[in-house]
Amino acid sequence: MELLNVYQNNYLIVFVFLCLGVLLPVVALYLGKLLRPHKPSEAKLTTYESGVEPFHDSRVQFNVRYYIFALMFVIFDVETVFLYPWAVAYDKLGVFALIEMLIFVFLLLLGLVYAWKKKVLRWI
């Protein structure tokens, strides 16, 4: 019975932090809306670009390669996030964890080779 109370207490702490994480930003935004001055004018509603009046459409089409390159960077950046805790706790994990991590790195390298063959990493 005591173990059940410990688990309920842990869930209660998580629930309180979840409520605070949602409630505090909502209250802060609502108070900001109530307290700020609201005097709209035509000058305030215009687009401001470093003090220069806009002279054309601000939408710019980017090459999709930039997006794919950034996505590849994020994927391999996340890889390092998974590798770091494993490296810190390697002594405690043993050979099984080493094999798991080698499989993980192999799959990522396989993805890198696939992206290289598809010429996703070609900048120009």
UniProtKB/TrEMBL annotation:
Reaction catalysed by this enzyme: a quinone + NADH + 5 H(+)(in) = a quinol + NAD(+) + 4 H(+)(out)
EC number of this enzyme: 7.1.1.-
Record has Calcium as a keyword: no
Pfam families: Oxidored_q4 (PF00507)
Localization terms from the record: Cell membrane; Membrane
Ranges annotated as spanning the membrane: 12-31, 66-87, 93-116
The entry's keywords: Cell membrane, Membrane, NAD, Quinone, Translocase, Transmembrane, Transmembrane helix, Transport
GO CC terms, sorted: NADH dehydrogenase complex; plasma membrane
InterPro entries (UniProt xref): NAD(P)H_OxRDtase_bac/plastid, NADH_UbQ/plastoQ_OxRdtase_su3, NDAH_ubi_oxred_su3_sf
Metal-binding found in the keyword field: no
Record's bilayer topology term: Multi-pass membrane protein
Molecular function terms, GO-annotated: NADH dehydrogenase (quinone) (non-electrogenic) activity; NADH dehydrogenase (ubiquinone) activity; quinone binding
Record's function text: NDH-1 shuttles electrons from NADH, via FMN and iron-sulfur (Fe-S) centers, to quinones in the respiratory chain. The immediate electron acceptor for the enzyme in this species is believed to be a menaquinone. Couples the redox reaction to proton translocation (for every two electrons transferred, four hydrogen ions are translocated across the cytoplasmic membrane), and thus conserves the redox energy in a proton gradient.
PANTHER family reported in the protein's UniProt record: NADH-UBIQUINONE OXIDOREDUCTASE CHAIN 3 (PTHR11058:SF9)
Oligomer status and interactors: NDH-1 is composed of 14 different subunits. Subunits NuoA, H, J, K, L, M, N constitute the membrane sector of the complex.
Family that this chain belongs to: Belongs to the complex I subunit 3 family.
Annotated protein name in UniProt: NADH-quinone oxidoreductase subunit A
UniProt source species: Neobacillus rhizophilus
Gene name per UniProt: nuoA
